[in-house]
Here is the input.
Amino acid sequence: MSQKHHQAYQPLPTAAAAMDNPAMSNSSSSSGSNDDVASSEPLGLPATYSSQQLVTSDFDSMERLRGNESDPAPRSTTASQWFTVGVLCFVNLINYMDRFTIAGVLTEVQSDFQIDDDSAGLLQTAFVVSYMIFAPLFGYLGDRYSRRWLMAIGVALWSTTTLLGSYMQQFGWFITFRALVGIGEASYSTIAPTLISDLFVNSLRSQMLAMFYFAIPVGSGLGYIVGSKTAHLANNWRWALRVTPILGVIAVVLIILIKDPKRGQSEGTQHMEPTDFRTDIKELLKNRSFMLSTAGFTCVAFVAGALAWWGPKYIHLGLKMQPGNEDLKLDDVSYKFGLVAMGAGLIGVPLGSFLAQRLRHRIENCDPYICAIGLFISAPMVFLALIMPTLSGTLCFIFVFAAQVTLNLSWSIVADMLLYVVLPTRRSTAEAFQILISHALGDAGSPYLVGAISVAIKGHLSSQPKMISPQGLQSMSQVLENATETVTEGLKEFAKASSSEDVISFEALQYSLFSTTFVEVLGGIFFLCTACYVISDRRKATQASMESSNRQQVANRPVSG
Here is the structure.
């Protein structure tokens, strides 16, 4: 018998503890009542009537929780669990639909309020700032109070504020209500993944998280499509914001019907008591895997936020400069961009989860490597997508698709890493902390930052008109593409047909969006650093969870006599 699977004498747990703790219930076949132990002599050991029994060692239980051993035969997923996951995925879908509806009608919003790119970017920034500020509050509450009611209240809040915001006629009030939407969404995003972690474990948890996070790119794509098409049908962009509040009412009812599992239930650590908030933050700051993966995910959020917000408008400006596309509408581009985003989400998120599950048995720290490789591939795809709109719309959308697929690989993997390197009783706090950092330094500022850089470059280009002459454009095309004579003639034609203002706006936005490629490379480096620590941090979290749960069980055990 190998040393890894040795049997050890341990105190006999109470029946209730054995039922509550799966790690303890997976004992050897000789475990049971004292009479059972007395009547058998496994492995030649003498019978004993003491309060001891043969159980698998804590090391074995920890190995199973880490996924280093083959998973035990999984229990069938109950209807209640499927219902909970389905509701959470639905709410996540409409959450991101609402978040990116405005991006699909951004040009109409700018025309209505008469704002420039920097103010337009500030719309998303105001939303994300309030979102990240209130995330720690809901993370703290989510670790201590009813998660079901916190989510229901939050969804009701963002649905109401979205609807009211659509009636605001002044930009100041409109941006205020967009900020209030962020408060409601913070309650849901910090809490929902922790419910999944308390219902499932190991590969099944990874699969359910993939389903949950796959709703993000799909919901974002639906936001572009529903927003642009609703605005077109109603001939008013404000009606685009009135679709998700209706779905939000349905979501509130469904959330109230789900069951809130005990924290740590899936891992047999539901007896753990939460620590104070200051201790939680200190421990998270010392968790190198958590901090480095959060830094990498911040880069993902920066790029995703910038491209999602400015992508449709940028492609629209570039395609309009091609001969014959002068009358192209933004809602047509937003519709195609939304389809591409949905397709990339349908492939990218499940693909990331699939690769992680297949490789973990051979490469224990494969999760951060997959995230890093995805970002390293996405960076050149983004660059190529940014130089293609004036040359080929088809190639542009192909490169956008490739960039988003590889960017989406990390969504479910990062969430899974957080759950297995952090104790169950501080996971909501960790989710909130990750949201705070990734949005504060990521997509909270990227739309505004890209817009502000675009405005600055626009002013510089406007003061140097020679930079936008047809000869300059022809020279630029030769450097970038070494194009054939046909492409060169096409560039001459669109340069003559396009106004100087359109060319300046396109170039300014292009240069500012180039910054996203450097951020992706930086994110890949952070994930490579995460790979150095993720194994040891995972083992520390597993061991600490079991020790804390065992101490709590001993403390709660009634004293005999």
Notes: The CA atoms of residues 326 and 367 lie 46 Å apart.
